[in-house]
Write a structure and sequence with these properties.
Elements: H1 26-29, H2 34-41, H3 45-53, H4 57-68, H5 73-83, H6 88-106, H7 116-139, H8 144-156, H9 161-174, H10 179-189, H11 197-209, H12 220-232, H13 238-250, H14 261-276, H15 280-290, H16 305-317, H17 335-363, H18 367-392, H19 407-433, H20 437-461
């Protein structure tokens, strides 16, 4: 049984005995939202409006997001707007639902991967949302949820940095230190949405500078650091870790800290970042605050996020640590992995022998032997990196290194293997076409190396999780 009493879906478990995995269900984490959920489940707008009125600003912002995620909620909201056309909350929430529909159509993939028809439909729904929100902000210019929603339409409709900033400034004048809005606007100023890392750093510093001690706004750096990992494959060096420690102590670890949805998002992001860095002791207080019913901030970027969270929390808190997602258990074997491992060993041996032979050729004064020796050595290094990664299994999220197939060292190996593979395939091809069996063997060998390196490099350069353009 799950923690909430329902049966656990088999798809929610891996083949490892992880127990009940976290669901990242905000409805169940925040019991004060129960009246909202009950009203929405029964499609009773009057009860929902009453429940909204009892919430604080943080909880209200979260509740609006959760209701917007509810399938078919637009039917209730359209009826509510028809009944009370001047209700700013009903209109704003309907716009938020339209925004959510638009992103479900577009998905979180990179813009270049969205087909034209889907992109046009995505924009149509966003325009509908924007038109509603414009009217709300004209009629009720003090309505903070509408200005927050307009940050999302500005980004999706690509209205530009100055317009997005204008909207954020209007919101900040009404509600200073609005952490959810700050996280939303931060997405606007990072490079994937037309901003820059310098602009993002400046915004993070601006939010932290005038925020009170204990405020989540003091820790917006955590969101930025996750974006840098996604965009730059950037690891956490000592300076970055020190900065994270400072913002943690100034926000969610401060004596004046007040628990709530914003603080929980900070805890989740810091727990993830310290897991990246394998600083499990530093991650521990954040995992304790989150418990086994966490929020998903940051973790949404990971595939198998529930398994990664359970494993990372166990590492931080000293419990039994399950294997990484995708790793075989002690009682299991994976024939494909065994075959791949055998092929990699053969590959490494062949490349090593050929490297030694080509060194001999190079020492004899043949310049082609130098290139061939370097190419075979690069191929051997590629095989070793992949074999070690295969034996170790999936790494902790975001921990790039050569033997795990990521990071600058891996890029160098892949690029060298690709370039030398292509070059020596090209050099060997004319002799192979004339019937030289040795040259034909070289074409096959070097061509395979080039293809293998290209595939590895392409996978490495793809954004992790496939959801980084949201």
């Amino acid at each position: 049984m799950s923690r909430t009493g329902g049966a656990v879906d088999a798809s929610a478990r891996s083949h490892h005995d992880l127990g009940d995995l976290p669901t990242f269900d905000a409805w169940s984490r925040y019991q004060e939202l129960a009246p909202v959920r009950a009203a929405v489940d029964s499609r009773d707008w009057d009860a929902a409006a009453a429940a909204f009125s009892a919430l604080g600003p943080q909880e209200l912002a979260l509740a609006l997001e959760l209701v917007a995620d509810e399938s078919d909620a637009e039917q209730m909201l359209e009826a509510a707007v028809a009944a009370e056309p001047d209700d700013p909350l009903a209109r704003t929430l309907l716009a938020r639902r339209y925004e959510r529909i638009s992103w479900e159509i577009r998905t979180g993939t990179w813009a270049v991967d969205v087909v034209a028809e889907k992109f046009e439909e995505f924009r149509e729904w966003l325009v509908r949302a924007e038109q509603i929100l414009i009217d709300v902000c004209v009629d009720h210019p003090e309505h903070v949820p509408a200005w927050e929603a307009r940050l999302l339409t500005a980004r999706g409709l690509e209205l530009g940095q100055s317009e997005a900033r204008r909207r954020y400034d209007r919101l900040a004048a009404l509600s200073p230190h609005h952490y959810r809005a700050q996280r939303a606007y931060l997405q606007q100023v990072v490079p994937k949405w037309g901003g820059s890392w310098d602009a993002a750093e400046a915004f993070v510093a601006e939010c932290a500078s005038d925020a009170p001690d204990g405020s989540p706004s003091r820790a917006l750096l955590a969101s930025l650091q996750i974006e840098r990992w996604l965009g730059l494959r950037e690891t956490l060096d000592d300076e970055a870790l020190e900065r994270l420690g400072e913002v943690a102590r100034a926000s969610v670890l401060h004596a004046d800290h007040v628990p709530g949805p914003g603080a929980d998002s900070v805890h989740a992001e810091l727990a993830l970042l310290y897991t990246f860095a394998e600083r499990h002791d530093d991650a521990a207080p954040h995992f304790r605050a989150l418990g086994d019913d966490p929020v998903s901030a940051g973790w949404d970027y990971l595939d198998d996020k529930a398994q990664w969270y359970a494993r990372s929390r166990a590492q931080a808190l000293g419990g039994p640590v399950p294997p990484p997602p995708g790793a075989p258990s002690e009682r299991e074997t994976r024939p494909a992995a065994v075959v791949l491992g055998f092929l990699l060993i053969v590959w490494i041996l062949v490349m090593g022998v050929m490297t030694v032979l080509m060194i001999g050729v190079a020492l004899g004064g043949d310049l082609r032997g130098v290139f061939a020796a370097v190419a075979f050595a690069a191929g051997a290094a590629l095989g070793v990196a992949l074999l070690v990664g295969l034996v170790r299994g999936p790494p902790p999220p975001g921990a790039p290194s050569l033997e795990r197939g990521t990071g600058p060292g891996a890029v160098a190996v892949y690029v060298a293997s690709l370039l030398f593979g292509v070059a020596l395939t090209t050099l060997s091809l004319p002799d192979a076409l004339e019937g030289d069996r040795g040259a034909a063997f070289a074409v096959v060998l070097f061509g395979a190396m080039a293809v293998f390196a290209a595939v590895c490099l392409a996978r490495l350069l793809r954004a992790p999780g496939g959801r980084s353009n949201r």
